[in-house]
């Protein structure tokens, strides 16, 4: 039985008839971690359960969240195109996704609805498909302790109250978790945001809370 050489990471999860002759430009700058993930067959990838997601958030190790290998490949291809078309991911987020004419908040944190926008995470992690991953974008800063990168007690309290008020009226409290990425893990730095995960929520509530939003992953082939 002849020994088969492993596929280059950039050919994994790609149908043979679609194999490029060389590594695509959008994958050439991949770091080792992304190369390892993209080079993993989807069939070998295990999605995280709701309990695993809650534990990752509880221990504040959100760097353990990863995308499904083929989704990470699509994400890198998409963001590579965005930078060419819009100049930066930030420009796309502000102008196309948020459609905010001004980034100046009208009032104090969570005081006015127009200072907040809830959208789907465009490229969610590899988690149980019953889990809905939302991003709450804000025009105001969510204050962090500069020595720890963690939220200040006041900011944490304000966010907890907002999440409870906004989501727990329609979703069981034990089916709601939220977290804010550490500064060094953020893919979009200049617009404040945090993440909310909901387990098996009512689709009608999701349509209502996101105002009919559709994640980019569902729009891009």
Short description:
The protein has 221 residues and is of the alpha+beta class. 32% of the residues lie in helices and 11% in strands. The chain has one domain.
Write up this protein.
This protein is of the alpha+beta class. The protein has one domain (42-218). The chain has 7 helices and 4 strands; from the N terminus they run ααααββαββαα. Strands 1-2-4-3 form a 4-stranded antiparallel sheet, with helices on both faces. The N and C termini lie far apart (38 Å). The mean pLDDT is 92. It comes from Zopfia rhizophila CBS 207.26.
What's the SSE blueprint?
Layout: H1 32-38, H2 50-58, H3 69-86, H4 89-98, E1 116-120, E2 131-138, H5 153-167, E3 176-179, E4 192-199, H6 203-209, H7 216-219
Antiparallel strand pairs: 1-2, 2-4, 3-4
Pfam families: DUF3605
Protein name: N-acetylglucosamine-induced protein 1
InterPro entries: DUF3605
Distance between the termini: 38 Å
Q: What is the alpha-carbon Rg in Å?
A: 19 Å
Shape: globular
- Can you tell me the residue ranges where pLDDT is under 50 for at least 5 consecutive residues? none
**Strands side by side in the biggest sheet:** 1-2-4-3
Helices and strands, in N-to-C order?
Answer: HHHHEEHEEHH
**Share in helix:** 25-40%
Tally of domains = 1
Strand pairing plus helix content: what structural class? alpha+beta
Please count the helical segments: 7
Count the strands?
A: 4
- Mean of all residue-level pLDDT scores: 92
Strand content: 5-15%
Largest sheet, in brief, is: 4 strands, antiparallel
Protein name: N-acetylglucosamine-induced protein 1
Organism: Zopfia rhizophila CBS 207.26
């Amino acid at each position: 039985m002849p020994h088969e050489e492993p596929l280059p990471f950039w050919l994994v999860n790609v149908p043979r008839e679609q194999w490029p002759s060389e590594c695509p430009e959008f994958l050439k700058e991949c770091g080792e971690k992304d190369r390892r993930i993209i080079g993993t067959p989807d069939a070998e990838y295990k999605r995280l359960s709701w309990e695993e997601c809650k534990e990752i958030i509880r221990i504040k190790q959100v760097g353990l969240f990863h995308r499904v290998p083929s989704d990470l490949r699509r994400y890198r291809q998409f963001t590579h195109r965005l930078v060419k078309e819009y100049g930066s991911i930030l420009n796309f987020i502000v102008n196309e996704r948020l459609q905010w004419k001004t980034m100046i908040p009208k009032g104090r944190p969570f005081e006015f609805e127009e200072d907040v926008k809830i959208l789907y995470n465009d490229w969610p992690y590899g988690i149980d498909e019953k889990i809905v991953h939302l991003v709450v974008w804000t025009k105001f800063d969510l204050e962090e302790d500069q020595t720890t990168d963690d939220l200040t007690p006041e900011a944490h309290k304000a966010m907890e109250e907002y999440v409870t008020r906004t989501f727990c009226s329609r979703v069981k409290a034990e089916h709601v978790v939220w977290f804010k990425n550490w500064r060094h893990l953020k893919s979009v730095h200049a617009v404040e945001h945090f993440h909310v995960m909901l387990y098996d929520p009512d689709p009608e509530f999701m349509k209502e809370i996101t105002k009919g939003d559709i994640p980019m992953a569902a729009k891009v082939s």
